[in-house]
From TrEMBL:
Family: Belongs to the membrane fusion protein (MFP) (TC 8.A.1) family.
Coiled-coil segments: 152-186
Domain (Multidrug resistance protein MdtA-like barrel-sandwich hybrid) ranges: 79-211
UniProt-recorded name of the protein: Efflux RND transporter periplasmic adaptor subunit
Keywords: Coiled coil
SUPFAM superfamilies (alphabetical): HlyD-like secretion proteins
Any one of the GO CC terms: efflux pump complex
Source organism per UniProt: Rhizobium straminoryzae
Upper taxonomic lineage: Bacteria, Pseudomonadati, Pseudomonadota, Alphaproteobacteria, Hyphomicrobiales
């Protein structure tokens, strides 16, 4: 059936009910908004940070350097006389035996001196024989009274003078023989030639180094170390050397010698390490590296990104695990390593330090956190 049209009074009542419902909805929405605001005021914002637990760990202070294997004993070989080199029988890297001829000088002058000395000895020997015969005759004549004592004394003096002259001539002959021998440069021990300073045809002066000979036997690891690295008084806890070409080849070592002289051009000091049971691969001249442990202590280290500053002093953010608020705590730095900062003091084991998200923190700020693995 068709519905009848609403009367004016009914239309007015319907409009009033619609407006009342709308007002009620608005009040309800305002009430909900007020509740949300109260909840937000009751629960302050908590920044989320990543933390790491501070732990005492063994701290090894290490040092390293590169050097080479050298003989424990080296000698510089040189001629004791001057002359022109006429032959050289060895080169750098050759192994030689004690007494082996390495080089020779032109011996013409020394041979002439030797012949002259030999002739002088022969002459003085003849003179001595003559004076000896004269002395014997005069002794016999003096005994028979045919010659005076004065003549006998004169013959005695001539004989003694001839003896002294012969001794001097023989000494010169020994010198000439030795000089001729010095024209040959010989190895003073078994070893390897590591340096050569002259060539055939060169005129050398006495005591000029011709070869450097590394004696067979014990070997040292030799390093040139910066003087500043030796300024501390720490005794190495352990020393180890390794081949640069093959780091798996290693050997223990001990400190044998620290040179008292400073290379002023480089600012370095020569340090020698004695190698314990060196492997055969560590041959003379091989390049090696040394790994030194100088000190071992229990210390706390932190990541670089956790470092902050408080009044110009190094500091880190720490989190109170009970109140879950932050605090900026000053620290003392022992040293800076490649990836972490080693602390001297300032933190205790078990404290939570902020390692991520600390850029915008403030004192006593509420935070939520997650424990991150130590990096």
């Amino acid at each position: 059936m068709p519905q009848s049209a609403a009367t004016p009074e009914e239309s007015v009542q319907t409009t009033k009910r619609s407006r009342l419902l709308s007002a009620t909805a608005v009040l309800a929405a305002l009430a909900l908004s007020a509740c949300d605001g109260q909840k937000k005021d009751a629960e302050p914002y908590r920044a989320h940070v990543g933390v790491e637990k501070a732990e005492m760990q063994p701290d090894l202070i290490r040092a390293s350097g590169t050097g080479e294997i050298k003989a424990r004993v080296e000698s510089d070989l040189s001629f004791k006389i001057s002359g022109r080199v006429i032959s050289r029988s060895v080169s750098v890297g050759d192994h030689v035996e004690a007494g082996q001829i390495l080089a020779m000088l032109d011996p013409v002058e020394q041979k002439a001196d030797l012949e002259s000395a030999q002739a002088a000895v022969a002459s003085q020997e003849a003179t001595l024989r003559m004076t000896s015969s004269l002395l014997a005759r005069r002794k016999a004549l003096t005994q028979t009274g045919a010659m005076s004592q004065q003549d006998l004394d004169s013959a005695q003096q001539q004989y003694q003078s001839a003896e002294k002259d012969l001794d001097a001539a023989r000494a010169k002959l020994e010198t000439a023989v030795e000089a001729l021998q010095q024209t040959e440069l010989r190895a003073d021990a078994d070893g390897t030639i590591t340096a050569r300073s002259v060539e055939v045809g060169q005129v050398v002066q006495a005591s000029t180094t011709v070869f450097t000979l590394a004696h067979d036997g014990e070997r040292d690891a030799v390093f040139n170390v910066q003087e500043s690295a030796l300024s501390g008084k720490m005794t190495p806890l352990s020393l180890e050397v390794a081949m640069i070409s093959n780091p798996k080849i290693r050997a223990a070592a001990t400190l044998r010698e620290v040179s008292p002289a400073l290379d002023t051009s480089l600012g370095t000091v020569r340090v020698k390490l004695a190698i314990t049971n060196p492997p055969p691969e560590m041959t003379l001249g091989a390049s090696i590296s040394a790994n030194v442990v100088l000190e071992r202590q229990e210390r706390i280290s932190i990541p670089w990104q956790s470092m902050f500053s408080k009044a110009g002093t190094p500091a880190v953010w720490v989190v109170d695990p009970d109140k879950k608020v932050t605090r900026l705590k000053t620290i003392a730095v022992e040293r800076y390593d490649a990836s972490r900062v080693v602390l001297a003091n300032g933190l205790t084991s078990g404290e939570l330090i902020v390692v991520d998200g600390g850029q915008f923190l403030r004192e006593n700020q509420p935070v939520s956190y997650s424990l991150e693995a130590a990096r």
